[in-house]
Predict the 3D structure of the following.
Amino acid sequence: MAEDFDVKMESKVYYPDPSIKETVRMGDYEAVYNEFIQDPQAYWEKVANELKWMQKWDKVMEWDHPYARWFVNSKLNITQNCLDRHVHNGKKNKVAIIWVGDGGEERVFTYRQLYREVMRCANGLKSMGVKKGDAVCIYMPLVPEQIILTLACARIGAIHSIVFAGFGTQALNSRIKDSNAKIVVTADATIRRGKRVELKAIVEEAVVNAPSVEKIVVLRRMTPPMELYSEMEVDYHEMLSDIPECGPEVMDAEDPLFILYTSGTTGPAKGIVHTCGGYMVGAYYSTRNVFDLRDNDVFWCTADPGWITGHSYIIYGPLLNGGTVLITESTPDYPDAGVWWSIIDEFDVTIFYTAPTAIRMFMRMGADWPNKYDLGSLRLLGSVGEPLNPEAFEWYYHVIGKERCPIVDTWWQTETGMHMITTMAGQPMKPGFIGKSLPGVVADVVDKNGVPVPAGTGGFLVIKEPWPSMMRTVHNNDERYRQYWTTIGKYYTAGDLAVKDDDGYIMILGRSDDVIIVAGHNIGSAEVESALVSNAAVAEAAVIGKPHPLKGEILKAFVILRVGYTPSEKLKSELIYHVRMSLGPIAMPSEIDFVDSLPKTRSGKIMRRVLRAKELGMDPGDVSTLED
Ligand code: WT7
């Protein structure tokens, strides 16, 4: 399998300055990993004991394949660990959140301020009838209120379902319906590159045919304030209670904390369910050790809380550790290509965590931009979401990190909740390779029967043992959950193809399914296809990922038109616009080909693999199941 990918196994090795290994918490990777593997449960128990629990567990873990229960019968509230713990332990006036707007505006929340706002918001939600176990959909721009709402839900035991504000009507509607959200919270608009982008208008359309929704809460940021129409709409500030006190709801470790949708191979997006106890331990642990987060750090993760990266490494992980996080609504190239570097300079950001797509974009814009600014505050760099190609690694390492900062390329998924594979700071780094299992995780590369493949041979990436922040189910589709653990032996199948080198360093080769990763965002081909087919002109559609120098992959659609429609450039634009409106800009096909037929199996399944091979001029491989 590896041959198909033209894998270059030799890699340059960068040996970090020995002082890094000596100072970071997990400098002695081998020793820590050994400690874990000797007694996994004792290892995780030690981590859990660093946090506050209302009642401790009877048992660290119970494993009834494929179902795990972690910290059995313990009680907690994650916000008590994110807020109360710090406020009552000398961090009242420490900065929790620094927000920078699209036009450079600033807002700062200390832990005390954040704590009070969360409790006011929690009381507000309660007054609207939100109770433990109810779902709240958060469709917000990247402003502090997005985080406040998330924590407010957790405070009262409501299940948050954050939907990235770049998604369109159809995508939002299906997520609201699947989660059964009682309340949808949004803002009038977000500001991108100086321009207002409407959000509430999308919500208005998305709640049609979503009978669970009782109220829409609107954060009005613009002047003059947008009018709120029906009885259904409530102003965010009016919802907030005057009472800044709201005790934490007692949650069982296995109570759901949130649902987060991620694209699947087939059918609609999957609602990944994470629970309170295990997720808390995983987010806390990985932030603390992979980023080595310290009290005087300023941590900037450029994701949006609408993705798992934002859940774990903007909101929960850093706040569980009492850290300072920076967030921004700004885009990396507005007002100019230096804006992000100016933010690092201005706020003395010490840890910077971004996606390869962004790094490649910065590379293209040239080193002059970062070189204008003082990036001396940086001490650790991170990457996530898609393979960090060696060229991008080199640029990040030399131009941004000035050969001083270790790079942690972190492999994980919405489903895993936390980092699973990386090269811990202080360890030798190999551009192109992510690294090894985090202590606490047992990852491997195996064949389809679950047998480990030798170094240099491609195979399937699996996780062999349960871990605290693993997803517990797929909302409304437990069968789909079971598939993750029953496809390759009894292991968790990640859906990625990978290869190991002689030192056990893992390289990701790509997905083994039809999930396409565009600019670090997971897009299911099936979702885009069904959006296309919902247009009156389209009879059938197939969508594939096509390699792209900047975005990793772009979407290419093959479309069969219905009788009566003729191919034209105008129709192409119409179809692209149609997908944009229903799924959002991130799912827009970059190319459309009109075709007369699609390669299918005899059972009628579209063979996207064949389309992809043809498009790339490659051998389509085994086509014995092809219809003709
Ligand atoms: C898929 C998961 C985890 C947060 C963002 C994406 C790909 C993720 C890496 C990496 C190569 C990566 C995988 C994975 N991926 N991180 N460091 N190197 N590929 O979360 O949307 O759930 O997507 O993203 O293919 O399966 P997600």
User: Anything to note?
Assistant: The mean pLDDT is 94. Residues 262, 308-309, 384-387, 409-414, 434, 494-496, 508, 511, 517, 522 surround WT7 (CB under 6 Å). Residues 2-77+255-510 form a domain with the Rossmann fold fold (CATH 3.40.50.12780).
